[in-house]
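Write out this protein's structure.
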Amino acid sequence: MAELQITMPYKLLPARIVFSTMCVLFPAWSIVAPVALGLLIGRIIAQPQLLPFALTAMACSSLLLLILGAIAVTAVSEDNRIHVSKDGISFPAMFLPALQFQRARSWSELSSANLITTNNSKWLLLAFSSGQSIPLKLDRLAESDVEQLLLAIELWAATCKRTPELIEYQTNVQNRGHGVEKVGYTQMWEEELSRRFQATSFIPLEPDHQLQGGRLKIVRQLAFGGLSAIYLAQDNQRELVVVKEAVVPPAADPETKKQAEQHLLREAEMLERLDHPNIAHVLDHFTEDGRHYLKLEYVNGQDLRQYVQQNGPVDQRTVIEWGLRILDILHTLHSLTPPMLHRDLTPENLVLTKQGIVLIDFGAANQFVGAATGTVVGKQAYIPPEQLRGKSSIESDLYAFGGTMYFLLTGKDPLPLSTSHPKTVVPEIDDDLDAIVARCSEFEPEDRYHSAAEIMQLLQALALSGDQSKVADPVIQMSK
């Protein structure tokens, strides 16, 4: 899971009106006023005695103030974005007076977050230790942005007091975002969920918990569910790492437990030997208090789901480029002896960094439990039917790849257990690219492509047939 880094527009009608007005008046303050000021200064230089000094000085000052003021007003009215990162929150310029002209605030400064309801409108009131407070009208933010903002406050503002009303509101927003209120996707999916998932006593580690005799300190949870969890941790009080934790079900019989532990050990040793620039490195594996851990390289960046949520669907040239890089990763994993199946390739597990697309989560901590106990691994929209039946194959990863391509092209998760056609959502998508995604996501494994290399050749040909000046590095050599 990548660090949450979001930029969200705050829709404020007065600011939009001011900005639109300044755009209409743009010729006056950006062309006419500067030309008039230049002519006036030129006349003063050429004939200094023609006009009184006081009058000319006043005229020049007025024109200059008009130009500078128009630039400032335009910049302030255009700046309508709230920036959120692990370091803190930064507000649009329109909030500067209320913040005593300190727009960026660290999370440690946020003392409380309250939900206020007035006249059928909901406001998020953020109060800071310095005494300032900012009211944010929630209907001026997209609901997905509200969800991520509240999540950021929960994760990073450790000293912030959240009211019960806000916590309940956040829960409702998250439920809506994850489709809890919607009808199940398919009868098959519902049956599998009811059959396979059951309550467990697994409790994730809390922040400041120490592992390996104090060498590793848990900073916070990044994700958890079922019998596994992912944490951000600090190694030797210096660098950040990611720690994956998995627990064999307590009710499992001794032979099943033994098989699961052996599977984890083999997976961990194989992952440690991987050397690929676009795969996060596994640094260590260990067992402690009956729980199994992988320590991975921390990759700072934005995962592909966050990217699409902020920027919308990705153009197909970029999707082809990213697809080739993802396939290169899968080719590396599938070329091992025996082949390593990922089983959980989703937009959340792929991070966009300066070095390109990086796979940050192998699913290995879940995979060894799934292989030995039959637990479902993966996210519902990206799980092929055979994986629900506990029979994953190389074609299963290619199904998830097709789902990921569909998400990047359309901005929507694919319909579970179905063939995906992105062209039905975005008609401009090339027929050949739509056909590639569709075959990747065929219901039966034998109807799909059978290797990442096969799809790479098709995408390379598609990239070369387009405008290569707009496709960065379209031909990617498969890793040896």
